[in-house]
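Q: Two folds, back to back.
A: First:
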Amino acid sequence: MKRRSLPEHFGTSLKPLSLQLFHMLLDPSLLVPTGPWWIIAAQAIGIYLLVDFISGVIHWSEDRYGSESTPFVGGAIRKNILHHHRPRHITRITFWEAMGTTALISLGIFVFGTLAGFFGWQLVFLSLLGMNVNIVHRWAHSTPRELHPAIRILQGLRLIQTPKHHALHHGLPRVTHYCAFTNWMNPVLELIRFWRSVEWIIAVLTGIHPREDDSLPGVGSTPEWILELDEEIRESARSRRSSPT
């Protein structure tokens, strides 16, 4: 029996696409910004603010919807619950533990963007900034003595989010200022009541309402697993103090 071949036009359409993708991945010229400087600057600033907005969307969704048992994202929500009960815990974990989730999200955006034909310096810039969002978040919970002088300078110039600004998210009632990369997107989104509007639309369309934050006074008690983690940390601290130097 004669083997059937793919339609001729199907094969010819795949070949240019595969060659184009191969060319994009290997062509370093696509990583060099071209055009008027003001267009390049506008694109860079737009990407910088887009990363902040994306961080807000992810942070808001983890704060307001789902639970520890939600498929695929339950682990991230669990970390977020811990963070609201123990905000300084993020400064005790390793850099990889802090940035692991954002690094994977950024890698996914990079791969998807590349396959969609958007490979270029803009996509690389967005991915590199994105993978550091939770490190910037960690710095916002650190004391000045815990930070390198260069980081304190970046915070002083408001190029990354400051502890004072991020404290607005952890204040009562903890339903504002979700963006965790800069100080710039939160005021705009709060002014237009962006998050409350999205929550209202979701409630109207689906009947799903945001979950209560049990770290708020009077809402709930501290989960047992967080209390157990507290004891582990205290025990570890006691062991370090008692061990001979």
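A: Second:
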Amino acid sequence: MKQVDDPKTDQNAIDLATSFLDLLRSRRSVREFSDRPVPQEVIETLIATAGTAPSGANKQPWRFVAVQDTELKRRIRVAAEVEETKLYETRANEAWLKDLARLGTNARKPFLEEAPWLVVVFKLTRDDEPNRETDQVYYVNESVGIAIGLFLAAAHVAGLSTLTHTPSPMKFLGELLERPAHERAYMLIPVGYPAKDAMSPDIKRKPLDRIMALDAGRVPNASDPTRSLPSSTAPSS
């Protein structure tokens, strides 16, 4: 066991949390990437950051496969667009397509070739560490989701842009990347610098009182309705 570091003062905690919020509020998903290279060391550091995530029984049931090979990225794009075409033409219902239309997406995925890196995240259906006591894994989806969240935040802190892409089904990723059967593709994340003319949808985040309840359903500032709440949306410039 290791002793936990002493906590910061309350004011330090507020200041640090606010500073992190200010930084993360400018994060946006990007679909247009520059061809500017990103050093492998940066990707390694982002994945190491993701690896700090908590996981069920500390099994760390994730594998991050970083792809930079041009031909391999092209093959991934071709296979992804096959599945995406099926989604837009037959799989998605009218409501789903209407929601997607607001974001301007379609079956074409050029970013899968344009981004200098594709990071493919796999979830492990069994523990494959050599010195494991058992091969069981627990709360896999929750654990991998947390790790991806840390990855995305770390990429933004590093000045990089990302996109969470989930072509479905994703079995082709395991086949193209020659992963074993117990690794299941979970998410495909292009990573790089945004293109000079990259655009992002002008989206708004829900206010805090729509995503947080205090105790048995009270709004966070119930005791002082005049107190302004922090916002997930950056203030207008």
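Q: And?
A: The chain has a mean pLDDT of 95.
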